[in-house]
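Below sits the subject:

***
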Amino acid sequence: MVAQVNGLIAVDMDSEKVMLNIDTGKYFALDQIGRHIWELIESPCCVSKITEVLVEQYEVDQVTCQSDVLAFLETLSNKGLVELV
């Protein structure tokens, strides 16, 4: 399961989600799909559920979607924005 870390301020700006990590003072912006994933992990969520939702809403196959979601979550984890729970 993956979830957003505590201590982030996030706001919607047009089709993006912009976040501020209070601890580091760094800003991050997510595009529409990144924003959708971010909203899915407001509460702890498993990668398979995230993938399932995205496959239903976008024209992408299961394998590609899961690979892309895992890469995206790894990037967010490396930036200290998500945690495994």
Remarks:
- Residues 2-84 form a domain with the Arc Repressor Mutant, subunit A fold (CATH 1.10.10.1150).
